[in-house]
Amino acid sequence: MNLIGKLRRSFRTLVILLATFCLASIIISAYYLYTGSKQEMALVETTGEAECEDLKLLPYRSVELKTPKPIDPSKTDPTVLLFVESQYSQLGQDIIAILESSRFQYHMVITPAKGDIPPLTDNGRGKYTIVIYENILKYVSMDSWNRELLEKYCVEYSVSIIGFHKANENSSPSTKLKGLPLHLYNNVALKDCVVNPQSPLLRITKAPRVEKGPLPGEDWTVFQFNHSTYQPVLLTELQTSIPPPAALPKAALYATVIQDLGLHDGIQRVLFGNNLTFWLHKLIFIDAISFLSGKKLMLSLDRYILVDIDDIFVGKEGTRMNINDVKALLETQNLLRTQVANFTFNLGFSGKFYHTGTEEEDEGDDLLLRSVDEFWWFPHMWSHMQPHLFHNESSLVEQMILNKEFAIEHGIPTGMGYAVAPHHSGVYPVHIQLYEAWKKVWHIRVTSTEEYPHLKPARYRRGFIHNGIMVLPRQTCGLFTHTIFYKEYPGGPQELDKSIRGGELFLTILLNPISIFMTHLSNYGNDRLGLYTFANLANFVTSSTNLKLQTLPPVQLAQKYFELFPEQTDPLWQNPCDDKRHRDIWSRDKTCDHLPKFLVIGPQKTGTTALYLFLLMHPSIISNLPSPKTFEEVQFFNGNNYHKGIDWYMDFFPTPSNITTDLLFEKSANYFHSEQAPKRAASLIPKAKIITILIDPSDRAYSWYQHQRSHEDPAALKFNFYEVVTSSHWAPSEIRALQKRCLTPGWYAVHIERWLTHYPASQLLIIDGQQLRSDPATVMDEVQKFLGVSPHYNYSEALTFDPQKGFWCQLLEGGKTKCLGKSKGRKYPPMDQESRAFLSSYYRDHNVELSKLLHRLGQPLPSWLRQELQKVR
Predict the structure, then answer these.
(1) What is the value of pTM for the model shown?
(2) Is residue 580 annotated as part of the catalytic site, yes or no?
(3) 835 is in an annotated binding site
(4) What is the pLDDT of residues 54-110, one digit of tens each?
(5) Domains plus CATH for the chain?
(6) Binding residue per annotation — 755?
């Protein structure tokens, strides 16, 4: 009896403790003090944890927990195979947006009628770690052959499936998924969902999480099952005001997201009973990708945010901050530090406008300066002018010095190393004078912009480093200079709240490890929407997710960014004239008419210089100006010159006398085999036409070797050709470097395929180098047709063969000729047969691939290639 009494007392104590904990949780989650707003706006109500009585109703609490089938991610590449209904389907686009924002690799396939699937393996390794179906019915209705093939792949390579079912007016009330012990009930109206805290999927999603109120739409699908392989992830109740389908069994809660643990057929799945419109579905979708990929495709829990307040001291009377606004700013900053580690507002100032408001607003200016040590500070321009309007560096320096003197006078720190240009002018497109002035006056190391590479879509914004300054992507948060009243928010205040509660603003933090938010002084006066927005956002993120919010000073933040994304250090220049926003913040002295219309890309030693001179004979074709270092070649896209920026590049081109008919071009023979040049060129001049010349790769290799000998390359002088091309991995570095320059450009199919990745085949012309040497007039007629240049130039009358030189020259008046320089057309001893045999074997597979490529492109095979292919037989 004593034992029973003790057990009863222990049980009573436990119940009291649990009840106390639940009550405390409710009080804490409901408690939030927000004193800053003149409108006395409270935080948007959120429900962070399930109520105790809700937990008692969850059916999974009485079900024995099962362990999911283990996932082995080592057998596959970290790529998603995505089947969509069409290229433009909304759900498909939403899935892609999340994959791209998360920087997950994916391969999209439009779901075929019979369920045909692309190749799933490559050399015994799985190509995909997860398969996603926009419409799960397309998966279960595949023909038996393809479904068996896909499911065998999933089992063998430990690959999982994610599927969605979006009901419509034509959906049957209930559906049984073919081959699975699972029923779907469609077009159900739901409310009050709760996240299952025992789901193994959950990582970012915080549970238990209750979302009160009706779920959007009346077209939900719920899942019913009686197999232990299934576990609910998200459970909901029926809306009592809307009759459910008659076939729907009665239950306390219904699952609208379920996980198949793989206990039925060895394949793990996660199924969604709607699309991704509902914000919790987005969270669970991201967690599902992480879990089912064995954490190969996983987002970190760390989130770094920086809130910039631009235009301090700038603004019309009535829109600025007074003393109470500044006090609210300080109070909210302290409040945010309880949820965002080290949170500090970052204030951007233009000193010229200090004390230009009302008396109350001037007092607010003074309180800001008395509180200078409470914030971080960064400079705008003194007069808030756009830097691209200043055409010389000295004028920018003068403006910056005025702002710096103001900062020193008022005790504002000047060593943060961060600056932002008004309207992002001069940051991108780059105004090099701004970068130089920033470094001279402020020693700037970091800036940010929303314009690189473009404003929209925001998920494509990236960072880059230029001229020693790290440029970070900046995010908008729906607050602009005119956004100052809650009730007048564009689209209504519910749009702002929707953005905070699972909408665009919430997703910005969810999908970006680092977010710099742009706000304005006016957002912190009047209704103080800036404070309202970020206080509510931090509260919603911390109550809904397991994300760890924190803030770093700008320089440390930039260093963290490029640690996470080292591939973004190099910029990818775009054409400023293709984006109206970019044209508006680009110097009026600059013009895109200085960009070439076509490129001659090489490779070297194939006749590119001869083609260059032939092109210059045409009255409507104009080349770049010569370079003091690389002569007729600019060599912009393939090396360090690229980092000098597009202004440097365009300075090489004259202004065409007729921008409609004249064609600018450049010839840089190193572009052909460069890994970077195709992508860079396509980014800046995507409509440019590309010309390449091919000769026998063995002859090209030998010609390059002799070229290096003539330029007294030590390796070429020390080793004979055969020793160079046959050298092993253990050979000295100088001979290996020469070998690479001899052999690698001859991998013609590899390099052309790289260019075709970025340019359509219609913009590529492949010239037979032998024909150019023997019959240049015919080749130049083909080139003119390809370029669409006018007038037609008669090369048959303009060229003459010089028997002494051994090649064709330009025929001048009086019978004189203009030929290539002495360095061209050198007479070399013939290649030795041993080297010829080795190279013929070395290039055999490359030549076969080239023949396949030319056949695919509908282009004839050069005579030298036909001869080499005959040796293969």
Answers:
(1) 0.89
(2) no
(3) no
(4) 433 444 444 456 778 788 889 999 999 999 999 999 999 999 999 999 999 999 999
(5) 80-293 (3.40.50.880), 302-568 (3.20.20.370), 591-794+827-871 (3.40.50.300)
(6) no
